[in-house]
Amino acid sequence: MKVCVVGPTYPYRGGISHYTTLLVRHLRAMGHSTHLYSFTRQYPRWLFPGKTDEDPSAAPLRTDCEYVLDPLNPATWRRLYRRIRANAPDVLVLQWWVPYWTPCLAMISRWIKRNTDIRIVFICHNVVPHDGGGALDRWLATLALHRGDVFIVHSEQNRHELEMLLPHVTVIKAQFPSYAELADNSSDRSVGELRRQLGLPNGHRAMLFFGFVRPYKGLDYLVGALPLVLEKLRVRLVVVGEFWSPVEFYQRIARELGVEHAVTFVNRYIPNEDLKPYFDLADVVVLPYVSATQSAVVQLAFGFGKPVITTRVGGLHEVVQDGVNGLIVPPQDRHVLADAIVRFYEQNLGSRFTANILSQYAQQRHSWAALVQVIEQAIEHG
User: Fold this and answer.
1) Are residues 253 and 339 in the same domain?
2) Is the pLDDT of residue 341 over 90?
3) What 3-state class would DSSP assign to 120?
4) What is the mean pLDDT of residues 295-324?
């Protein structure tokens, strides 16, 4: 099969960039001639909420790529269309996650459908934004997506949202694939060294909140649960990731609740080579999301063999199995969240959950090969 893929890759950072890169690597590894097109830039500086959209990793995920598309320059949209048409693939795979990309992807897919027989597959990481979802977002998503032939999603919520927008399309739900390969890029920096840097004694319990910090991720509920947890056991919460909302808000909550001593904030993007020690120091990863579809952080945690405590929102409970590889709680309930954290430690659930995670990975339940096979089947039978 001949494939063209459009999406972010290195030097851009984050989960969708890693996803695109790993997908292309595995398409090629399974014998498919695959050409990746990416962006000469993603966002104007005034629009991007983070410090930078570039990956600072010394050991980044890379793959061969042609940088063509500027979402703010329509001349590059036409240029990319011509290159895809000249390449004559069997399928064009487009990554979709926010309506910002609607103008360029809507026009490119329009030209492809009008002038070629190339089939279009959209991989929808979100159908509408986590912190949006209003009428304008739904209209923009419909405008961008309606020329797709096949849609791949990773949660029932995304399937439902997509079928509400486009009732007669072909939607395939696939398992969210593993990010365990990022562990291979980690350095030999010891967890003991990191513990010393964070002022965390050896043997002291630690739970990890990891990833970009945005309001929908519910960190305030986790900090709010800490006083209840600390009544039962000693544990440190380590919050690691770049804050897209003011870190002072969460520091103030911790201070007002009297748990400032039990929270460590690491306000920066963690490069690939530094991931391992942060996950190694944690007993469990806690993701108290208020809303979500799926999360690359779950697969990253599993890739390091770490159980996850998370909420019953989006597709998180489809991957985190309650009592098997983690615990599931209702969202926005600090009391139930605190009870789950205490139960995890008091019942010593970590070793059993980790054994189950390693068994699931040995069975290739979240392999990239499985996702490639979904794309193959979608084209063969579409």
Assistant:
1) yes
2) yes
3) strand
4) 94
The answer, yes or no, to whether residue 362 has pLDDT greater than 90, is no
What tokens does 269 get?
């993007």
Statement to judge: residues 200 and 303 lie in one domain: yes
Q: What are phi and psi of 4, to 5 degrees?
A: -115, 135
163, 194: one domain: no
Q: How far apart are CA 224 and CA 166, in angstroms?
A: 40
Q: Domain of residue 333: give its range.
A: 181-362
**CB neighbours (10 Å) of residue 182?**
23
Query: pTM score > 0.85 for this model?
Result: yes
70 and 39 in contact (C-beta within 8 Å)? yes
Work out the average pLDDT over 115-142.
91
One DSSP character per residue, 31-62 reads T-EEEEEEES--S-TTT--SS-SB---SS---
3-class SS at 269?
A: coil
215 and 254, same domain (yes or no):
yes
φ, ψ for residue 309, nearest 5 deg = -105, 120
The residue ranking higher by pLDDT, 354 or 380, is 354
List the CATH number of the domain containing 163.
Answer: 3.40.50.2000
What is the tens place of the pLDDT at every residue in 158-190?
Answer: 999 999 999 999 999 999 998 888 876 666 668
CA 106/CA 131 separation, integer angstroms: 22
Cα–Cα distance, 14 to 11 (Å, whole number)? 10
Say if strands 308-311 and 284-287 run parallel, antiparallel, or are unpaired.
parallel
Phi and psi torsions of 116, nearest 5°: -140, 175
